[in-house]
Amino acid sequence: MAHYPDTPVFTGTLRPMRFEGDIHDVEVEGELPPQLHGTYHRVHPDAQFPPRFANDQFFNGDGMIGLFHFRGGKLDFRQRYAQTDKWKLERQAERALFGAYRNPLTDEPAVQGSIRGTANTNVLVHAGKLFALKEDSPALLMDPLSLDTEGYTDFGGKMQGATFCAHPKIDPATGNMCAFGYAAKGLLTRDCHYMEISPSGELLQETWFEAPYYCMMHDFGVTQNYAVFHVVPIVSSWERLKAGLPHFGFDTSLPVYLGVLPRHGDAHSMTAPACISTRRWRRTTCSRSSRMCAARRSIRSRP
Ligand SMILES: [Fe+2]
User: Fold this and answer.
1) Whole domain around residue 102: which residue ranges?
2) Distance, CA 63 to ligand 1 centroid (Å)?
3) What is the per-residue pLDDT across 244-273, written as a single tens digit (0 to 9) for each?
4) Does residue 106 form part of some domain?
5) How far does residue 217's CA lie from ligand 1's centre (Å)?
6) Does the CA dihedral 105-110-113-115 come out positive or negative?
7) pTM recorded for the entire structure
8) Is residue 192 a part of any domain in this protein?
C-alpha cells in the first residue's frame, strides 16, 4: 500500500494526485468565451510511487501533463503521466527505484545507468510534438492531444549531448526552437551545447562550449544574434553526492559569469565576462535587478 511522507512537499496542495483520466465538458464557474479555441498544457511533479527517502524534494516527482482543450465555450480536460524511462521501470517494479534528486549513487543497482529524467519542469509544442522537459535529460516527446508518450529524442541521431534544457525559446523570425543543455557529457561535467531545431523538428546545429565550472544553468536568453548563459555558483560535486548532501549548494567563493555565444558562429568567439561577484552581491545586498543591470550592460556592448 502506498504511503507518502508526512512532509510539506507531499501534503496539502503538493499532495501527489496520481490521477490519469479524461473529463468531457468540464463544469465551469462563470462563462468561457465562445471564441476561445485551442489548448493549454500544464506540467507538475507528481510522484508515481512513494519516494525511496522520506526527505525527498518536490521536484524529484514524475512529470504529470494536463491538457485543457477549449472549444467554443466548452472545456475538456485530459491528464497523463509523461512516460519517461524512469516512470516505465518503476511502474513495472511497482515501487520507486530511483533515489535522491540528481544523485544516481542513491539508485537501486538495477537501474544504474538509466536516464533519470522526470519530464516535470516545462512543456511546449514545437514541430507538432509536445516537448516534456527536465534539464538533466533529453527532451521527451509526446502527442500534444492524446498525451501518448513517444519517448526521448536525439533528433534522429543528430544530437550528441545528453541533456536538453527546460526553457527553450522560439525565434519569432525563423520559427526555430533555440535550446541548450548543460552537463551535456554526463552528470557534473562542464560541457554545454547550444542547439537550434527547425519548425519541422530537424536539429540544425549543435555548438559545444565549456562552462567555467559545473553549475545549475536553468534558463538562458536569446537575441537575434546571440545566446546568453548565466553561470552562477549553484554548484555540485561527486563529494557532495557521496556525502548524501542535496545536489546543489551555494559557493560564494566563485565568480558569476555571463557567457555570450554567437548563435551562428562557433564557440571560439564566445565571451564570458564576469558581471558581478556573488560576494559583492551578498555584501551590498544588491537586488536581483542590479545583477540583471550588470548583465544588460554586458550584453549591450554586443549588437
Ligand atoms: Fe523554470
Assistant:
1) 1-153
2) 14
3) 999 999 999 999 999 999 998 777 778 777
4) yes
5) 10
6) negative
7) 0.89
8) no
